[in-house]
Specification:
By secondary structure, the chain is of the alpha/beta class. The chain has 13 helices and seven strands. Helix 4 links the parallel strand 1 and strand 2.
Length: 303
């Protein structure tokens, strides 16, 4: 083998090893987590402390952690913590500045959220379309997601300082969104995009294990149908009707539901309760009839 060929082969192996190394794979798996950590939420002149708390809560829900407030009308870490429970790590790290320029001075991209599209040319998109590109920008540094004040949104002079705008499509007859709602929609799409990159813990939505059981077996189904027929007969459901025909209807109904083993046992228990109730009722009626008969015999005049 020539020296150049050997060198190329070694470089190829080195490159392959670096891509497959545990550190490289771990870095790839953490890409989504890293991207969310580089997002800076900026609230420009928020007026209502409750709205700040709602944004904080939305941040915690969607795993964002960095918040900067530009000249807020009101701020109390204690009160915000009381509204947005279990968010102390976000609230305690809130940065408060006087100017917008201070808030975004260290970021590499500034993304405005606005309910209006200006006539002036500006790059804009909807949250779902914008999210992947925003996260891609975090590879170069921090990215600011900017929300305006509740009554007027972002003024033109602030929009001029932003690189792009995101607009949430809403009902044209009622376009305005609450600050907390707008933030949650935006954060959700960002987290969804981050999930595709990997590195986020997934919430288990599969339910408890006891909610699942294997399908009912043929033997279990036949045992139930036999019991069900007895129960219906006890309460005179077949009186004046063709019992086999009616049972075929019940069979179709139950089989269409495809019950699992736990569900068929529940139906069996129901059938047993019907039988027991019918038997108790019959016994009670027989006792009452016997009592009435004995009373009539005791009070009958002697002949």
């Amino acid at each position: 083998m020539s020296e150049s060929t050997e060198r190329e082969s070694n470089e190829s192996h080195d490159s392959h090893d670096s891509h497959d190394s545990p550190d490289s794979l771990e870095s790839l798996e953490a890409a989504g987590r890293r991207a969310l950590d580089r997002l800076l939420v900026v609230l420009y002149q928020p007026q209502d402390l409750v709205n700040i708390a709602l944004v904080v809560r939305a941040m915690k829900n969607m795993e964002l952690s960095r918040l900067c407030l530009v000249s807020p009308g009101d701020f109390s870490a204690w009160r915000i913590g009381g509204i947005a429970h279990d968010t102390s790590e976000i609230v305690e790290a809130v940065r408060i500045v006087d100017t917008f320029e201070e808030a975004v001075q260290d970021v590499v991209r500034v993304v405005a959220t606005t309910g209006r599209r200006r006539a002036k040319r500006q790059e804009w998109s909807e949250p779902r379309d914008a999210a992947p590109g925003i996260l891609e920008r975090t590879e170069a540094g921090d990215v600011a997601i900017v929300f305006g004040r509740e009554d007027r949104g972002l003024p033109n002079e602030i929009l001029d300082l932003c690189d792009e705008a995101v607009c949430i499509p809403t009902n044209p007859a009622h376009k305005s969104l609450n600050l907390g709602h707008a933030a949650l929609l935006m954060f959700y799409e960002l987290r969804e995009a981050a999930r595709q990159l990997g590195g986020l813990e997934e919430r288990d939505l599969s339910g408890k294990l006891r909610d699942y059981a294997p399908p009912a077996t043929a033997a279990q189904m036949e045992e139930f149908f036999g019991l069900w027929e007895r129960a219906l007969d006890q309460i005179s459901m077949f009186k004046g009707a063709d019992a086999p025909s009616k049972m075929r209807s019940y069979r179709r109904l139950i089989r269409r539901a495809e019950p699992d083993g736990r569900e068929i046992r529940l139906l069996q228990a129901t059938a047993w309760r019907i039988l027991h109730y019918a038997n108790r009722t019959r016994a009670q009626l027989e006792d009452e009839l016997d009592t009435e008969l004995d009373t009539e015999l005791d009070t009958a005049p002697e002949v």
